[in-house]
């Protein structure tokens, strides 16, 4: 009897793992399609086809497309939260934290797929009042975790005369999204280098400027960017 129970449990766990994998693949497919084709035009059939599943697989995991959208939003929030947790490791010096934060902020802002998803998400919230709570929740949580991170960083460095962290984060996000949109429609004028340079200028002006003792990691990063790859 114990051997039978063990075998039944093994099969049950395998089914749970399979369902989790299906769910994650549907979320991946939705994220990519929402970013490239838009949330409104993307149908459930398009998502399941892209993920390699049937409609039955979709409805085994989600009730509606809005439920799937909420799952995508939740995953992106968890990913952002994990990134900030890794940056805040006690093993990192303030210099390393600032250099890592700069690289993360600019890297995320220049990720075309990620930026387009966030832009599509906000436009979806504008057009669909019933979805605004989902959109607002992600924006608020992202701003809150990033703002709290900056507050801890400034406190760790003994800085008290900095602008409100939510304004710093909100300004950076707004600028990044605007520049991303410009790059989509003005690819010849808004080069990746110009986009990165503009975001770096903002970061250095409103964050690193209040930590003058941290010039060295910023200069090191700039030196690495200017050095041709071997």
Describe it for me?
- The chain starts with a helix and ends with a helix.
- Helix 8 packs antiparallel against helix 9 (192-206).
- Residues 1-5 and 216-222 have low confidence and may be disordered.
- The chain has helices at 2-37, 44-51, 55-59, 65-87, 94-109, 112-127, 132-156, 165-185, 192-206, 215-226.
- It is 77% helix and 0% strand.
- It has 230 residues and is mostly helical.
- The chain has ten helices and no strands.
- The chain folds into two domains: 1-62, Orthogonal Bundle (Arc Repressor Mutant, subunit A); 70-226, Tetracycline Repressor, domain 2 (Orthogonal Bundle).
The portion of residues assigned to helices is: over 70%
Q: Determine the structural class based on helices, strands and strand pairing.
A: mainly alpha
Unreliable sequence segments: 1-5, 216-222
β-sheet strand percentage: under 5%
Distance between the termini: 64 Å
| Average pLDDT score | 83
- Helix and strand run: HHHHHHHHHH
Question: What is the CATH fold-level name of the largest domain?
Answer: Tetracycline Repressor, domain 2
Largest beta-sheet details: none
């Amino acid at each position: 009897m114990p051997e039978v129970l063990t075998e039944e449990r093994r099969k049950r766990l395998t089914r749970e793992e399979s369902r989790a994998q299906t769910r994650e693949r549907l979320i991946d497919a939705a994220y990519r399609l929402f970013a490239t084709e838009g949330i409104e035009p993307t149908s459930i059939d398009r998502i399941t086809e892209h993920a390699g599943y049937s409609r039955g697989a979709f409805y085994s995991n989600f009730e509606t497309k809005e439920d799937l959208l909420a799952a995508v939003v939740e995953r992106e929030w968890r990913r952002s939260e994990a990134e900030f947790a890794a940056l805040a490791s006690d093993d990192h010096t303030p210099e390393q934290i600032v250099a890592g934060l700069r690289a993360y902020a600019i890297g995320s802002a220049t990720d075309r797929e990620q930026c387009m998803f966030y832009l599509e998400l906000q436009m979806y919230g504008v057009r669909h009042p019933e979805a605004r709570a989902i959109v607002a929740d992600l924006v608020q949580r992202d701003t809150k975790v990033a703002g709290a991170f900056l507050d801890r960083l400034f406190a760790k460095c003994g800085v008290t005369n900095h602008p409100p962290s939510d304004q710093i984060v909100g300004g950076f996000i707004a600028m990044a999204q605007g520049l991303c949109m410009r790059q989509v429609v003005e690819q010849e004028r808004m080069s990746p280098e110009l986009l990165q340079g503009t975001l770096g200028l903002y970061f250095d002006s409103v964050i690193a400027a209040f930590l003058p003792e941290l010039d060295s990691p910023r200069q090191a990063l700039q030196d690495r960017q200017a050095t041709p790859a071997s």
